């Protein structure tokens, strides 16, 4: 099969990576607890809620944009269109950015500092496992248009 027709991923890893990161954070907090300052806990919980709400809005906006552009949401399917509108104007990976913000937000809301650590680890692993392959897929499908898009749009933020 040529690169143009090749799927970016054989399995949709990113949702599982972030799910595992959240589970790992709660296991780490249970066995290796990190203490949280007792002052202003409501600020951490409020900030966590804002991050989670931002993540949900970003993910829904990104998924809606993909549907409107008649291309797949699933990371293990071939893209039919290069999407550069909606949140894709600001970041090439708004869904993964949303996952990262949600993971960190859960940590703040639940007062679990490990979630912030595992959110960063999940973002790094997602970059290695998924984003690099997705970018190769998009480059093979859309060529110079994708290169131009990459030049003007950051990968994460």
From TrEMBL:
Top-level taxon in the UniProt lineage: Bacteria
One Pfam assignment: PEMT
Protein name: Isoprenylcysteine carboxylmethyltransferase family protein
Subcellular localization(s) per the UniProt record: Endomembrane system
Matches recorded under PANTHER family: PROTEIN-S ISOPRENYLCYSTEINE O-METHYLTRANSFERASE, SLR1182 PROTEIN
Principal subcellular localisation of the protein: membrane
Transmembrane helix as UniProt keyword: yes
Transmembrane segments: 16-34, 41-62
Keyword hit for Membrane: yes
Record's bilayer topology term: Multi-pass membrane protein
Coiled-coil positions: none
Alphabetic keyword roster: Membrane, Transmembrane, Transmembrane helix
InterPro entries reported in the protein's UniProt record: Phopholipid_MeTrfase
Lineage: Bacteria, Pseudomonadati, Pseudomonadota, Alphaproteobacteria, Hyphomicrobiales
